[in-house]
Structures are given as C-alpha cells and as structure tokens.
Amino acid sequence: MASYRRSAIWANLMKLTMLTACFCKGIESNGIVGFTLTAPASLSVRRGHCLHIPCQFTYRSDSSSMNEDFSAYWLKDQEGAEYCFQGAISGGCVQGLLVATSDDAQRVERSAENRFFLTGNPNKGNCSFIITEAQLEDEGSYYFRIMGDKGLKFSYSTTYGYTSPHVSVTVSEGPQDVKIKVVIINSQTPGSSRKRDLGAKVALEGDTVRLLCTAKGRPSLTLTWKKDKESIGIPKQGNENAYEISSATLKDAGKYKCQAENDFGSATETIHLIVQYPPRFATFSISQIFERDPPLIQDFPRVTVSLVNGSRLVVQEGDSLQLLCKADGNPPATTVWINPMLEKLTDERLELVNLTAKDEGQYLCQTDNFLGSAQGMLMLFVESSGAPKMILPANVDIILLFQLGINKMSCCICVIILCNCWNLNRRKAPK
Ligand SMILES: *[C@@H]1O[C@H](CO)[C@@H](O)[C@H](O)[C@H]1NC(C)=O
Ligand SMILES: *[C@@H]1O[C@H](CO)[C@@H](O)[C@H](O)[C@H]1NC(C)=O
Ligand SMILES: *[C@@H]1O[C@H](CO)[C@@H](O)[C@H](O)[C@H]1NC(C)=O
C-alpha cells in the first residue's frame, strides 16, 4: 500500500515536472533536454547464457553539473516495487529493483547479485552492463539512473519523464520438461468385476485413451505427436498438445512420441501403450499326422490342415496325430485341451498316438486370459482298420486318408475335404 501511494505521488510529481518542462520549452534548458541514452530497445538471451548490453548516455553538462562525480544504477522496472537509496547519497526512493550499480553503498536485488554487472565507466558516458547466467526471471525492462555528488539525479525512464523506451530483455529457452500424461477411460460399465492391470499405460480394447503432452520453453514451442515414427494428430503451438484414441484397438498399441521444438532446440518424450484384449483364435489345426505303419517316422511328410470350429474328423485306427490350438491374446492366453474322458492337458499341442475307438469323441480347446476366453471344438471318429468301412459318420468335414505306395518312403497323402453334395451320396451314418 505504502509503496503504491508513494509511486502515485511520484507519478504526479513527474506530471508536474513534465508540464513545467513543456511550458518552459525553448526558454530554459530544463528537464530532459541534454539527456540521451543509446542502447538496444530489445534484446534476447538464452537461459543460462550471458548478455552484453552496450549502452551510452549523455547528461546536461551545465556549470552546476560540471566535474560532478556520479554513480550509475540499472534498475528493473517492476510494478509496485521500489528501491530506496542508502548511504551518503540521499536519492529517496525510485520505482523498480536495483540490479547493477557502480555505487558500493547500495544493495542490489538478491537474484541479480553476482550476475549483473555494470561494465561501462559512467564518468565516460558508458552505461554498458552484462547479465550472466540469464534466468527466466530476468525477463523484463530495465532503465538507467545517474546520481551525482553535487545534486544531479536523473532516471532515463518514461516513468520519470524520459521518452526513450527502456531496454527490454527476453529470455529464450529450448524445450524442457517434456511430459506425457496418460488418462485411460474404461469403456466397461462401472463396477465391472474384471480384474485389470492398473499400469497407467495399459488400456483394454475399447477404452478411450487420452495422451496429453506438456513442455516448457520460450519462445512458443511446436508440439507434435508421432506413433511408431508416423505423424499423428495436429501439430500445435504452445505448451500442450492432446491426442485422443476414442476406442482403442490392437492397432493403437505402440510407441507414442511427443516432440517439442523451438528455434533453440528440440526434446522428446515417449510412452509405450499396451492394448490388452481377450483371446482370439489364431491357429486351430492338425499340425502333424503320422501313419500307423511304420509308426512315427521322423521324416514322414508333414501335413497341416486348418480346422473349422466344430469340425468332424475321421482317421483310421492306429493313426497318430497332433492337434494344435493357439489363441492370440494380451496378456497371452493359456491353452487347455480337454479330451473325451474330460482329462485336461495344459499345452497348445495335443498328441494322439495309435488311435483306437476309445479315443473317439469331442476334443475341446479352451483358451483364456483375464479378459475372456475362446473355445475350439472338434469331433474325432476312428475307423477300424481291416475290411474297408463303408459306414461313415454324419456330416464329416475332413477325411484323412493315407495310402502307402510300393516304396514306403514315397507315400502319398490325400486330404479330402468333402462338401455337402458328397455327403448326399453316402449311407446313413450311425449315431
Ligand atoms: C563501454 O564499456 C564496455 C565494457 O567495458 C566496452 O566493451 C565498450 O567498448 C565501451 N564503449 C565505448 C564506446 O567505449
Ligand atoms: C497300437 O495299439 C494296438 C492295440 O491296442 C496295439 O496292439 C499296438 O501294438 C499298438 N501299436 C503301437 C505302435 O503302439
Ligand atoms: C466353437 O464352438 C463352440 C461350441 O459350439 C462354441 O462354444 C465356441 O464359442 C466356438 N468358438 C469359436 C471361436 O467360434
């Protein structure tokens, strides 16, 4: 409050001074006549770097100020702040914060201590100063003031009637602190009892995923998104850029990179998004078939036949085969085979050797992860060897027929997939 009032008084006082100056213009050298300051109006420095501000000034040198020994002061303009001079010089108080001076009796602002230096010799009209290790808070405008031992006091500031603009300093900075915030909104109804991974970057299929990239840097940054090196979303100027995946699918899983750039550099941040989903059938097949005689020859030609869920399969007694059931899922699905005796086998592969009528029945493959399950089923029929069997089960989809040639090594395998019209020609099947 007090400082505000005081600056108000000062402002009024200055208005009065200016008024007087205008009134008396040309009659008497007064006020600002004879005072000049030559310095760049605006300068930019990179954070942490050093800024040299060249500056020259003149002051009215009439008989009263001749041979006056004076001190120089650089002040940072700041609304509501003021500096009151100490020691022998009674200069009262001025607006702003003192940052550099040739006057040892004064105390500069703490943040400017040992960083701001007046390098010019004020008695030679040199008001140059430097800012070392520039900080973001150094940004602002600065004005120069002189005070002599014989009563000369002058501020090269518009606040005090001087018309030249202050020296304005901006501090630039390459991109810093690039961060990605991930918000995953569960698509499932609230209260769902399903267990889920609480890791912030793991989404379930169907979830909404919001990625928010934030960064610091001056001047304004450009923020862009990339997914697995491909550009996505819209580049944005400023300190944040959001990207939303409205209903996550497997395709949305991958590396998301946010890049922040300005003239002073670039920085990135990457997150890995995992999309989890229930098992889906990838493979349901007979991966290998062995002929019954000779048994399990290693180099016997391999045959892989894909099975349709609910397939009916006919083999001959003594045949051996391997069934393969694989589901794609994230987290990876576990596979359990259940045979007609309801025995469970935890493996993707089910090996059936030397088949007999006892092995006939339903084979079920069950795949699970915490998000769900998928099943595959097949019916196996075993034909007895010996006299050729004329009776076949109903709705046979696949018949595996092995024929041995004269040379056992050169055998021929025929896999006949029968269509429904073929079924019409067959006899009625037993139940
Ligand atoms: C003013 O002082 C600075 C720092 O000492 C110096 O580099 C510069 O040359 C001087 N300027 C003039 C015009 O003498
Ligand atoms: C296959 O099973 C039959 C009947 O159980 C048996 O006689 C035969 O030795 C078995 N063959 C092989 C190769 O295990
Ligand atoms: C396969 O068939 C079984 C029984 O008809 C069914 O429960 C299961 O959902 C089916 N699986 C697939 C992947 O279609």
TrEMBL record:
* Pfam family name, one: V-set
Q: Where is the signal peptide?
A: 1-24
Q: Please list the residue ranges annotated as the Ig-like domain.
A: 190-274, 301-369
Keyword match Transmembrane: yes
Report TM segments: 398-422
Where does the protein principally reside? membrane
Q: Keywords in UniProt for this one?
A: Cell adhesion, Lectin, Membrane, Signal, Transmembrane, Transmembrane helix
Top-level taxon of origin: Eukaryota
Protein's UniProt keywords contain Repeat: no
Membrane topology per record? Single-pass type I membrane protein
Q: Which InterPro entries match?
A: Ig-like_dom, Ig-like_dom_sf, Ig-like_fold, Ig_I-set, Ig_sub, Ig_sub2, Ig_V-set, SIGLEC
Its annotated compartments are: Membrane
| PANTHER family, A to Z | SIALIC ACID BINDING IMMUNOGLOBULIN-LIKE LECTIN, SIALIC ACID-BINDING IG-LIKE LECTIN 5
Family the entry assigns: Belongs to the immunoglobulin superfamily. SIGLEC (sialic acid binding Ig-like lectin) family.
Protein name stated in the entry: Sialic acid-binding Ig-like lectin 13
Organism, by scientific name, is: Pogona vitticeps (central bearded dragon)
